[in-house]
Amino acid sequence: MTSLALTQPRARSLSPALPLVAVVALLALPIGPGGEGGAGPADALSALVVLYCAIRLVRHRRRPLSRTAAVVLGLPVLGLAVAAMGAVSPGAGLSGLGRYLQVFVLVPAAVLLLLRDRSDFRLLAWSFVALAGWQGAIGVHQYVTGSGASYQGEQIRAVGTFGAQDVMGMATVVSFGLVCAVGLALGRTPVRQRAIAAVCAVALLLPLALSFSRGAWIATAVACTAQLALAGPLRALKVGAAVAASGVILVGGFGVGTAMLQERISSITQVTDAPDQSVTDRYTMWAAAVGMWREQPLTGVGLKGFPEHRDAHASLALSSGSDTEGAGAAFRKQPLLSPHNMYLLVLAEQGLLGLLALAGGWLALLVCALRRVRRMPGVDCGIVACGLLVWQLTDFAYADIGGPSTVLTAVCLGLVAWWAVGPTSVEVR
Distances from the Cα of 390 to the Cαs of 156, 221, 269, 384, 413, in angstroms? Predict the structure, then answer.
């Protein structure tokens, strides 16, 4: 009887956020060479987490969500249902509907419901930093040893365990970790924690640079600038100076990335004057997405419909696919099946109805998150949440959902939702 009484408080003290940490941890596992980069173990576990959350709600007979949270998270459902009915096949409609519901509705709602307080939020944020450190360390090793993905004829691109088939995977993970670390460093937490977070943020700059991902660089710069603005001018000046000095030392002093990195940075300003083939392909696919929307402006061409309608709307400037090689995978031509712009993908497949529902929910989250930060300035959770959402909204201009790292987008939206429209107890703890 005594032993049972001792184990019960320990069981109750375990954070319900631990399954979410496990979802993040599964992304540290390697992906088999030549894999398609679709759903993986983390996605399967996220489905179990949603089921676990539903069972807890029934067992404890709690009200699932507040009215505001239910409206914000439920907004995309209507547009998704209409777009699923307009899909090219029932199978494509159901698979697309399931993926969108997972990323933008179910997993974010589960995160919101499972987090109890700011300690759980910080636990999940630190798990992002840890995953970024692991993937980043592998990426740096790939660059140093020449075992990464192919870039300009050399196998030096840092991709972590995601492989050449998902070159954006590591960049996304490292960016999320860096944004979390910056937010934790700027918050009003103990000095030791802020110092560790600041060191992690500086360390993650190196693998982010070696990912050669222009979209991730831009999104991270925008998100971190927003975080510095939310933290106040004095703290922003100190952290900004430290990060700038670290960047100068890494790139200039140690010659990180050398000429290739400098060329990649310069290419950001040349996307209109002298675009490379990847930029040309992206512009062509953007135009194709707009063409699809013009045919079906209200409801789009249906979920998973972009690949089916691409060739009918794309110009001859579009190449047959992007070349992928390295990081343990043989050379292959990867087909271009999305416009690499989330807003245009939704516009093409779901029309104005879907775009307004999804983007409207994201905008509502951003407004609510900023309002709560204004009421509670300097709280690290708020700075992290706003940074993650700004990063994602910026990155969606250059990328869309797809690949194993997509489940992290769902968890991030859940963190943002917990801060923005979560329980009022957030403000008193």
Answer: 29, 10, 22, 10, 11
- Asked if 178 and 208 touch (Cβ cutoff 8 Å), the reply is yes
Give residue 15's pLDDT band: very low, low, confident or very high (50, 70, 90): confident
Query: Assign residue 122 a region: left if phi > 0, alpha if psi is -120 to 50, beta otherwise?
Result: alpha
| DSSP tag of 166 | G
In which order are the strands placed within the sheet that holds 154-157?
154-157, 149-151, 322-326, 329-334
pLDDT > 60? residue 383: yes
154-157 and 329-334 strand pairing = unpaired
Residues 408-428 have pLDDT tens digits of 999 999 999 999 999 865 665
Burial label, 331 (beta-carbon count in 10 A; 0-12, 13-18, 19+): exposed
Interaxial angle between packed helices 41-60 and 406-421, expressed in degrees from 0 to 180 and rounded to the nearest 10: 30
Beta carbons of 9 and 116 less than 8 angstroms apart: no
Nearest to 206 by CA among 303, 136, 107, 278: 136
Question: Domains of the chain: which residue ranges?
Answer: 40-276+326-427
Q: What is the per-residue pLDDT across 282-338, written as a single tens digit (0 to 9) for each?
A: 889 999 999 999 999 999 999 999 999 998 888 877 876 676 777 777 777 777 888
Task: Give the C-alpha separation, 38 to 98, whole Å.
Answer: 13
What's the rounded Cα separation, in Å, for the pair 232 and 221? 17
Per the CB < 8 A criterion, the answer to whether 401 and 28 are in contact is no
Kindly report, residue by residue over 227-270, the tens digit of the pLDDT: 999 987 777 777 667 766 766 666 555 455 566 666 676 666 65
Confirm if 324 and 332 have CB atoms less than 8 A apart: yes
Lowest mean pLDDT segment, chosen from 113-117, 152-156, 348-352, 392-396 = 152-156
How far apart CA 240 and CA 84 sit, in angstroms, is 45
Whether 69 and 422 have beta carbons less than 8 Å apart is answered as yes
Phi-psi region of 400 (alpha: psi -120 to 50; beta: other; left: phi over 0): beta
How many residues does the structure list for the chain? 429
DSSP code, position 32: P
The residue type at 129:
V
Which residue type, as a one-letter code, is found at position 34?
G
User: What DSSP character marks residue 74?
Assistant: H
Q: What is the DSSP string of 254-286?
A: S-TTHHHHHHHHHHGGGTTTS--HHHHHHHHHH
Number of Cβ within a 10 Å radius of residue 294? 11
pLDDT in tens, 120-136: 999 999 999 999 999 99
